[in-house]
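Tip: read the tokens left to right.
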């Protein structure tokens, strides 16, 4: 097999012969669609059992073979650029600790995309925290942890310091590791406007790509049906499997997602229009004042005095919003 390599299986924790299938997918939180994929071989010639065949350098096949021997973070950045150029946009890029090097995160943010990822708990990667360069473990030891059954142990604002002096603010969220009380995971978010619960919720959507791999391997015969020794044939077969998955994903969306029922969804929206939060608040406030006047026999001036005291006690942003709504 062309470019067959000795690679590490992170599930079985053993070395084996094969390829790494790097995949970029898009999701709206309900449906996952694979966008791009690349079968990666080892960049070290000593770890490759067979070299690629002689291919015309002007062809796509030659470019695919060169990309297969490129480091995964660089391939990932190229996939993102291609997706953006094709008109596929998203708010966040989610990935595990394999791609969470500060240099990679800075390059993604430079493409006007936010990152939410797991970072490695290593002493080699340092973050700027309170004027010091510290690892995530050192930051963890310097802070008091949350008690009780909170979903996260600690949340701090830090920064990534680029080699060119660029400082990128990030939020580090230390999350309890399920089933292991003394261990934790560290989530990084470049969107400082998100709270900790939102960061955890959004990162949880990354699990959809693991489901994609499981379906492709177990049901769509990704690793068993193609027996060609040509790298081009393997790339074509990967495209066939991904196309099958996309058709299943679209069919599942049409069957299960009520937003895909076409005109029925819009008709339902017309029949049951939503009301804004402010209007709902005003309705509740009017009901409260009516009950207070009826039960305690309050006069109109007393009702006005009660309402005025209530409005004065509200925060300024909410007070302005209520005045505009009124």
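Filled-in amino acids:
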């Amino acid at each position: 097999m062309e470019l067959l390599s000795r690679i590490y299986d992170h599930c079985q924790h053993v070395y084996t012969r094969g390829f790494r299938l790097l995949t970029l997918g898009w999701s709206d939180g309900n449906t996952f669609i694979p966008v791009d994929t690349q079968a990666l071989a080892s960049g070290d010639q000593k770890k490759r059992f067979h070299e690629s065949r002689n291919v015309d350098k002007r062809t796509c096949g030659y470019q695919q073979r060169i990309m297969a021997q490129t480091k995964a973070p660089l391939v990932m950045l190229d996939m993102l650029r291609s997706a953006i150029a094709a008109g596929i946009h998203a708010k966040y890029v989610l990935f595990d600790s394999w791609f969470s090097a500060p240099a990679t995160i800075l390059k993604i943010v430079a493409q006007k995309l936010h990152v939410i990822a797991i970072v490695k708990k290593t002493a080699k990667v340092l973050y700027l925290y309170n004027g010091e360069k510290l690892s995530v473990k050192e930051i963890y030891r310097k802070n008091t942890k949350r008690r009780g059954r909170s979903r996260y142990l600690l949340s701090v604002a830090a920064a990534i310091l680029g080699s060119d002096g660029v400082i990128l603010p990030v939020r580090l969220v230390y999350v309890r590791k399920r089933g292991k009380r003394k261990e934790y995971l560290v989530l990084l978010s470049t969107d400082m406007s998100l709270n900790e619960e939102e960061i955890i919720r959004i990162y949880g959507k990354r699990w959809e790509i693991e489901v994609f791999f499981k379906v492709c391997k177990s049901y769509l015969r990704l690793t068993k049906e193609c027996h060609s020794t040509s790298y081009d044939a393997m790339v074509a077969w990967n495209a066939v499997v991904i196309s099958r998955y996309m058709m299943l994903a679209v069919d599942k969306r049409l069957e299960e997602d009520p937003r895909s029922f076409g005109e029925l969804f819009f008709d339902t929206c017309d029949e049951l229009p939503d009301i804004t939060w402010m209007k709902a608040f005003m309705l509740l406030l009017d009901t409260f004042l009516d009950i207070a006047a009826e039960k305690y026999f309050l006069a109109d001036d007393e009702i006005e005095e009660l309402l005025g005291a209530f409005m004065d006690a509200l925060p300024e942003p909410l007070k302005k919003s209520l005045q505009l709504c009124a």
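The radius of gyration is 27 Å. The chain is about 40% helix and 20% strand.
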